[in-house]
Amino acid sequence: MEIRQLEAVVGIAEHGTFSNAAVALGTVQSNISARIARLERELGTELIDRASGSLTESGEIVASRARRILSELSAISSDVSELNADIHGKVSLGMIGTAGRWIVPLLLAAQRTAYPHIALRITEGTNSTIEPQLVNGQLDLAVLAWPVLAPELAEVDLFSEDLVVIVDKRHEIARTSGSISLSDLSAYELLLPLTGTPIRREIDEACRVQGVKLRALIELDGIRTIASMTFDGYGPSILPATMLSRHLRDSFAAVHIENLAKRRVSLVVRRFGFPAAPVRAVHALLLDVVKNATDVPDGVYIPGAPVLQ
């Protein structure tokens, strides 16, 4: 089994076709085909469905392991560079949208000063899209909403934030005394996060304890989309307080919800394996910029957090 064969499998997994994998790896399609064929003979199984071009079940297993192997190989040179106090390498970071709005600018500014030779790649998404990418090695670390479900992942608390009703100031909810109970909120149709998502689990647990059932106008697995629909006039929503940007506060209000727990946001890595020097550096940098941030959004609360060793 050769590294080039594993690169070919991962290339097809990530780019979809033999020809696209060849372009990404700087070779020709015939070389990719030959590498895959030799690996299939060695393993005694088909890795690529030639009719569809997609990975077989065996191919998915090989691709998952191969990503980790290639990541470890890349980490060797990065760790050696650390000895010279000049860390080089790439770091792929997953980020939920509400966190990215204020964390990414802080991280970028600090990274340019402290680690100018680290190349950051940031993927924005939801827990449901980012967790699998972190588990299989496509991402090195991630900022996710708690709880994190995959047993292969470990997290530390990064910050917490209020969940509020975001509503047009002309709506009667906005004319309350500044807070509203879940019971009173059940009288209105709401734009809600999709059932099973981290935010919705927090909301549903509070509703269960209080014996309340909320009315959903629509459920979506996308906080930005929910916020956009509220700002476009489709109705109030329950979202993190950070979704109400300062420039929207003349027209919209964030109404506190009584007895609803704050949403926890965590910095997440794979539980097993030794992270490369650039990953450890960005992990420490993320914790530092958040802990020492002086201009955090309203409704965000920052605790202390340990550093990845």
Protein model, in words:
There is one protein chain. Helix content is 42%, strand content 22%. The chain is of the alpha/beta class and 309 residues long. The chain folds into three domains: 3-76, Winged helix-like DNA-binding domain superfamily/Winged helix DNA-binding domain (Arc Repressor Mutant, subunit A), CATH 1.10.10; 87-158 and 270-301, Periplasmic binding protein-like II (D-Maltodextrin-Binding Protein, domain 2, 3-Layer(aba) Sandwich); 163-261, D-Maltodextrin-Binding Protein, domain 2. The strands form three sheets. The protein has a six-stranded mixed beta sheet with strand order 2-1-3-11-4-12, sandwiched between helices. Helix 1 crosses helix 4. The chain is elongated.
Summarize the structure.
With 309 residues, this protein is an alpha/beta fold. The protein is 42% helix and 22% strand. It folds into 3 domains: 3-76, Arc Repressor Mutant, subunit A (Orthogonal Bundle), CATH 1.10.10.10; 87-158 and 270-301, D-Maltodextrin-Binding Protein, domain 2 (3-Layer(aba) Sandwich); 163-261, D-Maltodextrin-Binding Protein, domain 2.
